[in-house]
Amino acid sequence: MAPTDSPAHVEHPGSTGSLKKVITTRQFIFMALSSSIGAGLLLSTGQALAVGGPAPLFIGFAVVGLAVWITMCSLGELSTNFPVKGSFYEYSVWFISPSWGFSMGWNYVMNFICIVPFEVIVMVLVAHFINPGLPAEYLIPGFLVALMLIYVFGARWYAEAENVFGVLKMLVFTIFIMTAFFIVADAVPTDPRPASELGWHIWKNEAFKNGWAGFLFVFMSAGMAYGGTEMLGFTAAECVNPRKVMGLASRLVAGRVVGLYLLPILMVGLVLSIPLEDTAKEHTDTKTSPFVLAVARAGIPVLPQIMNGIILVAIFSMANASVFASSRALRAISSQGMGPKFCGLVKWDRPVGALIVVFLFSLLAFAKVSPDGDNVFTWLLALASASNYFTWMSICLCQIRCRLAIRKRGLDQHTVLPSYRSPFGIYGSVFAMLVFVFGLVAQIAAAVKSPLPSPPPVFASMLGIVVVAVFWVGYMCWKRDWTLLVPLKDIDLETKDAPESHEFESV
Prior knowledge:
amino acid transmembrane transporter activity, Amino_acid_permease_CS, disordered N terminus, AA-permease/SLC12A_dom, Amino acid/polyamine transporter I
């Protein structure tokens, strides 16, 4: 089915009002550098280090990081030349098919709605490093109320809060990198470990742990850790100059990947070893941030508590960003008839209906107080990781099909894409898609042959795939529309506002 020519950003009758452009370029730059860094990097890397070892951890994060950077360049190309309000999933409708766009919209919503309770659970785990006796049933309501308060003040103050959180994240990684350097150099007198047990000695003896199963396991952590980078597409919709900031963000992401992901991961692999057996313990080291644990094992006083406090704020920041992403995504798809009318409601410049739904789902965090509450962590981690891989694949496929449509019609790329063009072109997006497909397969394969003493159910690793399949096939069956790919000749390249993706009916 070909798209029509009317604008996609026309609000559905079920929506009320629109979101104002109040986020400044300065705020957006800080968000591009450090927003959406949360438990995936700050906590789950500990388990990945224990299972895979330092070499797979670094290699996996480097490969996925490169693919994510390419993806952001592709998203920058699309968003600056074909601006939309619904971000990447509208491109899925435009350049792939209505059914795929529908599934990607709901995949994104389900992902970040589930990440909110996931991050709250992680905040409880981090708080227990300070005081193991703190009851989760008291901590969880406090964290949820704090998240709600930020949204009372709207998008501008959300952006300001993220700027403060971003500075703290960059500070904690700077402190850790400098401290790890001194530990490796045997310049920390309080460290009881001899220099012969640190640095490249760890890599020599534990570089690759548990063979291929350990290597594949890392990709679940990497898929989660980089998740949310693409939410800059939503944030840009509320920026004063969205075309300018998205082109800039796609370039800033490269520095973010190297400085805030790869360098800290390289250093933690040089100063910390976590036995696989520890993952089965009730109070396991893999439930403490590996960056804090590395400093604590060096015997440095006070600093681990300071870093842990900053990490708690950083994870709160990711929960905050997840509320923003899920509420904006839910509001956007609902305003076009892809969801309940109530969720498209905007009052006081806020997506009130969507925020209510998001905060209701955040109550899932109370599962932490149940006897099997820790299993919720693994299930939500697997769901978020698979969902992120699908999101990034869809963005890359949209960029590929846009370029192919330009070629097929004999148009000049400089004319159709005047604002910004990805330096990686089609081949970069193809490479990124292959990495993401590998990440999905690796996640399932690692679950089938899990080296963990208490492995999660295999179905947990497939949950994200099931979610996408249900929405994708469900839409095609409901609409009797079996279009898998919109023909290249029918893709509208002349209209600089997105053509209306589909006549969705309200759910």
